[in-house]
Structure formats: structure tokens, C-alpha cells
Specification:
single chain; alpha/beta; 5-stranded parallel β-sheet; 7 strands; globular
């Protein structure tokens, strides 16, 4: 049996994306790869509240949330040891220079199938280190 469709089995994910349609589509697609829960957040404020309230296995972060930088969310996730990937509609964002220049980045439009192996690997590494 091929288990590739369940590569995220049991994962609890956070999608920080200001477009509801995009976040909803990502959420649904991630669930097809086995994620048991996908929370959506349209803003930095909401994302920070969610991170403080509950644990996540990994996150997808849109770099620009209606003109607001997602970096405070990345900082909070980093403090909690939660791996994340950036998803951006910009070619190379100045927002990602410096501290997060080595973080995984995906250019929109991106297929969830492209992101999932990276998320799964990051979750596995985090779980191994715990």
C-alpha cells in the first residue's frame, strides 16, 4: 500500500494566509496528506494568539499579510521550536533576508504536494530531537 498520501499523518498545522480562499484550499489539501487539524489565521495578531494557545507541528507562512510582515509569527514559532516554511507571491522578499534567509521558501502559486515533503521532514526532525 502506498502511504505517500498520508505523509502528514496526525500533524497539527497552522496556515497564516490573508486570503481566505487560498488558506481554505491549502487547509483542504493538507488534510488530504493526513494532517488531522489545520488552523487558519489571516493576520499576525490572530496567528500569535493561536501559537500561544495551542501547540502546532509546523506552519505555512505567507510573507506579506495585507502589507504586514509575518516575521513576528516566524519569531514566535522559532521560540516554540515549531518548524515553518514561507510562501510568497514575491520573487525574493527583502523581508526574508538575514535571520530567515535559509528557511524554506516557496513561490506562489505553489502546489501543496511540493511543500508537504519539506513539512514532513521538518516535523520528523523536530520529533526526533524531542
Amino acid at each position: 500500500m502506498d502511504d505517500s498520501g498520508h505523509i502528514l499523518d496526525g500533524a497539527k498545522l497552522l496556515v497564516v494566509e490573508d486570503s481566505f480562499a487560498v488558506a481554505d484550499a491549502l487547509s483542504w489539501e493538507l488534510s488530504t496528506f493526513g494532517a488531522v487539524e489545520v488552523r487558519m489565521s489571516p493576520s499576525v495578531e490572530t496567528a500569535l494568539e493561536q501559537i500561544s494557545a495551542e501547540p502546532f507541528d509546523a506552519a505555512l507562512l505567507d510573507v506579506n499579510l495585507g502589507g504586514e510582515s509575518v516575521l513576528p509569527v516566524a519569531d514566535q514559532l522559532d521560540e516554540h521550536g515549531v518548524p515553518f516554511v514561507f510562501v510568497t507571491g514575491y520573487s525574493e522578499s527583502d523581508l526574508l533576508e538575514g535571520r530567515y534567509s535559509e528557511a524554506p521558501k516557496y513561490q506562489k502559486p505553489v502546489s501543496v504536494a511540493q511543500i508537504v515533503p519539506c513539512l514532513a521532514e521538518m516535523i520528523a526532525l523536530r520529533n526526533r530531537d524531542d
